[in-house]
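User: My advisor, Dr. K., asked me to get a structural model of this assembly before our group meeting. I'm new to this, so sorry if the format is off. These are the inputs:
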Amino acid sequence: MKFSYNWIRELVPGLKMDVTTLAQQITMKTAECEGVHDPGAFAGASVAAVASAENSEPDSIIEIDNKSLTNRPDLWGHLGMAREVAAIAGLSVVDPVGELPVAASKGDLSITIEDANLCARFSGQRVENVKVAPSPLWMQYRLNSLGVNPINNLVDVTNYVLCELGQPMHAYDAELLGDAIVVRAARKGESILALNGEKYSLSPEDIVIADAHKPVGIAGIIGGNDTAIRATTKRIVLEAASFPAAQVRKSSSRLKLRTDASMRFEKGQDPENTVRALARAVELLKQISPGSQAAPPIDIYARKTTPPKIQLDIDWAERKLGRKLSTEEVINIFKSLVFGVEQLDQRKLLLTVPSWRATKDISIPEDLVEEIGRMVGYASIVPQAPAVLAAPTPRNLDHEQHRAVRAAMVGQGFTEVSNYSFISEAEAAMFASWTGTLLQVANPIVAEQKYMRPSLLPGIRRNLADNSRYFTDFRLFEIGREYHKSQDGTPAERTHLVATIYGRETSGANLLEMKRIAQYVASNCKVVPMKSHDEIMHPERAAHVEVAGQHVGDLYELHPGLLDRGRAAILDLDLDTMQALPSQRAPYRPLRRFPTSSFDLSIVAPTHTLVADLENKLRQSAGESLVALQFLLIFPLPPDKKSVSFRLTLGADHRTLTAEEVTRTREKVVEGIKSAGYELRE
Amino acid sequence: MTNPIQTIKDLTQSALGDINSATTLADLEKVRVAVLGRKGELAGISKTFGAMAPEDRAKAGQLLNEAKATLEKSLEDRKASLEGSESDQRFKSEWIDLTVPPQGIAPGHIHPVTQVQDEIEQLFTSMGFRVLDGPEVETDYYNFDALNIPPDHPARDMQDTFWMTDGHLLRTHTSPVQVRALQKYGAPMRMIAPGRVFRNEEVDASHEHTFYQVEGMMVDRDVSVSHLIYFMQTLLSSVFGRKVTVRLRPGYFPFVEPGFELDIQCLICGGNGCAVCKQSGWVELLPCGLVHPNVISNSGLDPQEWNGFAFGLGLTRLAMMRYAIDDIRLLQSGDLRFLNQF
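Assistant: The format is fine. Below is the predicted structure of the whole assembly, which you can bring to the meeting.
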């Protein structure tokens, strides 16, 4: 929103602040100023020419961030900003609107509001004997420097009033409009050719201004082309109305049409302003279209609201701000902001909100605290530590877990990545098992955002492909959330760790190294081989990871078909499941007091025999005197056998085993191996 | 016959020469056996003492003992010296080059945003703020309505929000955790909620649809703007590692009233004005304010009894400021050439 420094000075006589200081003051007390510009800098060369032709003082434009005006409908016109400036500077505002004419509800123009919810107030006025011509240069200059294109004197007047009072207006050619105006919901199938040359199909959620037959304008957004001012126009109807913010906003976003009018209405415009705007426009028309004659305004005030009164306890406001406030200081602030002030007792006020602050802005005592705070200046508040109960801060065990896992992974050479939560259609299709559990994005901007990731793997796979262009070997991991549709249809999020070890030249992924990592992160985990039948895992190189018999994740080689080159080992752990498990810490055992005896065995078995099966066999046959079983090595015996060596340590709790006992156990073990169909390698 | 006394003297002289010329511990041992051994030369001489006159014998005996002591001492010294040079030799042969790069896996790297988040979590935890999480797939109630953003509010623009086909949405800020936290744990409450948020917009060097925020909130009895300034000044000074000056100015956010934009005095120029602060001396850092009474009551608490402050800090922005990262897209790229620098 652009404000003319000269215009504000006209409205606040006696203002001495230079434009830079004024902009700073507005930023600190009202709304964020984004900069001060020379009007010529953005409005084209013609402005400078106009300025010199008029011999007027060069203007400066103060640019205010629109977002910071979201709650201030009154600041969408110069008079509103002038009120703020006057309050800041301790001066008074001159109201550009003169005495209001007496309005009637009936006259030469018939106005009907079908539903007061669609339009709180509609004011219209006929003006006869107008003559279309260019506006005087001072008006063109002012509009142009605010970014509004001058069109002709009639249209320019409505825009000028918009910029001055913030009230959107419209001018119809009275011949084309006829004598009746109806404000109603659009009918199904209706459409309108708008002033911008576009045709809009309307829905019953849109509000229209219509003549006897058809819409002549989309309420609060844009006028129709058929009733627009043209070069031959002699009589006009001026419109100034109040439309509901929510509906205007909805229509404006559905029609994808934002206008100077809609931006203002969606903030909630002051209905008190409609007749004022008509009066101001008529007065301007007298100047710039001499001979024009206005009929009395017709005014339908369908729903009048009384300005709210709010009680303010100054002691309470002191506690909110953390700063002492004198009653006098507070009264002066509200008087300067044109509130009605009634003192109830020493420290209590009853404040009447001005109509232009009452639509969306100020309705509760907290809103009044802001008025006080910004006017006394937040810099006058001294920082102070609160008195709070001293108690230990509750811990976030999930974050502690993530931090510990992260530290472990980094220590093992893995770098943390952060991937998007989205996957593409193609990625979703790659993994058939996900179908039906995916959360789908309704309004993605790009195709890569179609679904929420049901696994961190697609992102990790992208990382593998991208980084394999630059590195032959690398390790990376992500800790992040998966998104699923749960049984009852509600979304569910689970935090996973997915880690990968990539090698470009290896003939297979380093799965046993990844198993070591798994045991490093989940110290008591067990890796249980499985046959994989999906498209993600290498069918012969996949395992479940279990803790205390519970499936907590998977360890596998990424299906080689999913990588252009190289191989990748993957570890995928459900950190939420792991977190929920009871502590796996084994109790302390006293140190062994009696010596143990050890011997080594090498077992010859078929190549596909699991070491874990051999270990189980050894444990079973050795019995309770086995205190430790250590895997030593595997030696391949082509074509189809291997030799696996173990060290067995025997002992007893309360004595030393005899040589005979050790020999007997060894014989038992050898017997067990042989009876299981394996051989001993001597 | 030869004079035993002279023999002892001669023997001692030659033995001392042998000791000093021995170059190995084995040679030295040979000398020791030859001179001082049970069958050695000094022992041989003592056998001749029987033929001597008693006074000569005493004198020769004394001389012999002195010679033994001298030689033993000399042997010890020589032995120590030979031993020293032998271990020197061994050590020399064991030299290694410590400038050789070590074998094994070099440590990985933690994501820069995670590093900043960890630091912020520890800082706030130390000030009594608990760390909480909330869902990323949210309901429009928690993301908007509960935060006093009614259905017709401009902040709900369709183009800003990722919607799910089932009517859920991706949270556009971490603020929903305010209401969830109060509903779950009640008041008093001091918490932060860091996490991932989403905005449905085009990505370029300074815009991302996925980024990180940390929400902060304190709810108690009589929490004031002066408390808010105190916490912000203290915590931001700690974040930036030096005294930070803050200022509040009006800002509008539906879930706070009054609402503020918090600026910090420019850390580059100290407030004198530079390119970073666009000559203003101040850098806009975070939105904050006193929690709106509607948010307190939507959380199941009585706004007459409880109030508080809340703020939102951009973790992604903070990480970019700290490490001078000029392209936001790098953070979600998974590119190890970038990530291995942190």
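One thing worth pointing out at the meeting: The radius of gyration of chain B is 43 Å.

User: Perfect, thanks a lot.
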